[in-house]
Amino acid sequence: MITNLTGTTINRPYGIARGADGNLWFANSNGKSIGRITPTGVVSSFTHAGLTRPYGITPGPDGNLWFTDHGGNKIGKITTAGVITMYTHASIGLPHGIVAGPDGALWFTNLSTNSIGRITTAGVVTNFTHATISGPHQITAGPDGALWFTNRAGASIGRITTAGVVTNFTGTGINGPYGIAAGGDGNLWFTNNYGNTIGRITPAGVVSNYTASWLTNALPYDMVSGPDGNVWFTVSRRSRATR
Question: Model-level pTM greater than 0.85?
């Protein structure tokens, strides 16, 4: 059963994550705010003068929520009390996806600078570049202790260690990759936004591809690992979420 929750402060929400306080936190990409919604549907909104267009959001190891400010070229942090702190760095350019890494830092993709960023919970930013990083979008923590990301423009899947070593995987079955998530089977799963298929890549880089008739021209989009051991993804032209 689907329940729809609305509110005057919800304005084109994008990323969503569960906070340490048991509530859901989301990025209002057009509302220039971070939203919070309780399990009973009570919505709150939090703003900051330096917040422009938040996109991705993830729980951090410090108990706060961390998010990308895609429009402002910043990384933000919000406490469960609603206090926002913004961080800037010359290397941050159209940050998109963000995830907590196994090293206790936050890792994010820089779409316009074709790089992967790392920010500590103290706000120290490090940037990693590589010739194969091209249009990175989403990023996830892999089962091998590395971070995995989609290169949408480069038609490849990238892997970066916590030391900053980048490996790039290409091949048949990778076509406009967008969302990516670690599956319960120990592999990485991703959506092919251009190819209208679902891909799987092993930690060794072996790619498999899966399709269905209803995925034709469906534009599979974002992806997340579910509590049932499956991976769930959104389909932007079919108005549905599936697995």
Answer: yes
The contacts of residue 224 (CB under 8 Å, 6+ apart) are 179, 181, 231, 232, 233
CATH code, domain with 29: 2.130.10.10
Is the per-residue pLDDT at 241 higher than 70? no
CA atoms of 175 and 45, how far apart (whole Å) = 37
How far is 96 from 67, CA to CA, in rounded Å? Answer: 9
CA separation for the pair 117, 95 (Å, rounded): 9
Query: What residue numbers bound the domain in which 213 lies?
Result: 135-243
179 and 100 fall within a common domain: no
Give the closest residue to 110 by CA, choosing from 81, 61, 154, 75: 75
Decide if 3 is inside a domain: no
- Give the rounded distance of the alpha carbon of 125 from its chain centre: 18
Q: Tell the residue number behind the tokens 């500590």, with chain if given.
A: 120
Question: Domain count of the chain?
Answer: 2
